[in-house]
Amino acid sequence: MRDIGIGLIGSGYIGKTHAIAYNAHGSVFGGKAKLACRTLAEIDETRAEEAANALGFENSTSDWRSLLADDAIDVIAIATPNALHKDMTIAAIEAGKHVYVEKPLALDTAEANQIIAALEARTDPEQPLVHMLGYNYLCNPIISTIKAMIDAGELGEIIHFRGRHNEDYMANPDVPFNWRCSKASAGTGTLGDMGSHIISMAMHLVGPIASLCGDTDIVVPKRPDETGAPRAVENEDQAQAIVRFASGTMGALETSRVALGKKQGLAFEIVGTKASLEFDQERMNEVRLYEGSGAPGRSGFKTILVDTSCPDFAAFCPAPGHGLGYNDLKIIEVDRLLKAITEGARVPVDLYAGREIERVIDTWVLSAQERRWIDVGRL
Ligand code: NAI
């Protein structure tokens, strides 16, 4: 089997995480299929060359479109600001490349629909294209353990999901205006940036979200631009919603980029009729479980550490409780991509699921504007 060639576009925060994962994948997961870091595309030649050297790519370019015609590249990985995802994803699909695009899929549902239309126009049963989004938190081995518990009915019927993804990276009003504050570059604010992660987690564990009543808020209305002059922030700093899942389960979601003290605050609580559990990404190797069957005076939450019963964890380490880190989630995600290409396995979040997340976000924004409950299916 020949190596699977990667063309990576963007080498910022998440592009570097991609590169670490491509380079480390073989050491962790082994296997016959190998990934090859072919070409890195960046905004200019100097940046592209420096990043390619640092991140282990064979070639560099300032023209991402040159990746499309390169036969040595099988996968286009898109790690650029949100506004570029649509055109890059469609171009990759039209070139017949597998596509691995960072979250959120696009600026909104309308753009996501254009991507799906391109995919369906290109779909060839003889040569299926793998498409996957970078919702890496779903690849955490302890999340796989939680999902297995839910699927086996160990929590009983799930009656409530409360989830948040809060961080404080923009809590300081002096943090300059950047692409994440711009509607043209990012679309929504914290909703697309981190809200999309907790929405993906809620949907992964409890199923589709049927309706919601949302609210959004800009806390820091102006931030200094590159000259120091105040510039109006164009999208929300924090947002919350009450939701109903298609299963009938009640839920509450929130997201913030100005939640002082929260560094990686993706967390959730699930209440079941037999057991309840709590997870916090800041303690990403453990889950806290309360079983309703406990004897009076002997009941309480217990902490379960990730162990080798989860194959994704065992691939890293033979001893239980030796924690993984954020970058390891990307290595596991890349393994999902590789297995989808070589074995036809399912990916955690494909373009269709990515569009569903866009629908939830757009419904949330509309609900906040109109101050009422809205069915997600309406968009
Ligand atoms: P960033 O600003 O750190 O990096 C973006 C990179 O894209 C920059 O190096 C920039 O020069 C490059 N770029 C921009 N236009 C380009 C073009 N036309 N051709 C080639 N390169 C170009 O941004 P960051 O934080 O890496 O975010 C990128 C994407 O990744 C976003 O969609 C974001 O939502 C997502 N992301 C996902 C995370 C996750 O946990 N899965 C975490 C952080 C970001």
From TrEMBL:
<keyword id="KW-0560">Oxidoreductase</keyword>
<dbReference type="InterPro" id="IPR036291">
    <property type="entry name" value="NAD(P)-bd_dom_sf"/>
</dbReference>
<dbReference type="Pfam" id="PF22725">
    <property type="entry name" value="GFO_IDH_MocA_C3"/>
</dbReference>
<dbReference type="InterPro" id="IPR050463">
    <property type="entry name" value="Gfo/Idh/MocA_oxidrdct_glycsds"/>
</dbReference>
<feature type="domain" description="GFO/IDH/MocA-like oxidoreductase">
    <location>
        <begin position="144"/>
        <end position="278"/>
    </location>
</feature>
<dbReference type="GO" id="GO:0000166">
    <property type="term" value="F:nucleotide binding"/>
</dbReference>
<feature type="domain" description="Gfo/Idh/MocA-like oxidoreductase N-terminal">
    <location>
        <begin position="5"/>
        <end position="121"/>
    </location>
</feature>
<dbReference type="InterPro" id="IPR055170">
    <property type="entry name" value="GFO_IDH_MocA-like_dom"/>
</dbReference>
<dbReference type="Pfam" id="PF01408">
    <property type="entry name" value="GFO_IDH_MocA"/>
</dbReference>
<protein>
    <submittedName>
        <fullName>Predicted dehydrogenase</fullName>
    </submittedName>
</protein>
<dbReference type="GO" id="GO:0016491">
    <property type="term" value="F:oxidoreductase activity"/>
</dbReference>
<dbReference type="InterPro" id="IPR000683">
    <property type="entry name" value="Gfo/Idh/MocA-like_OxRdtase_N"/>
</dbReference>
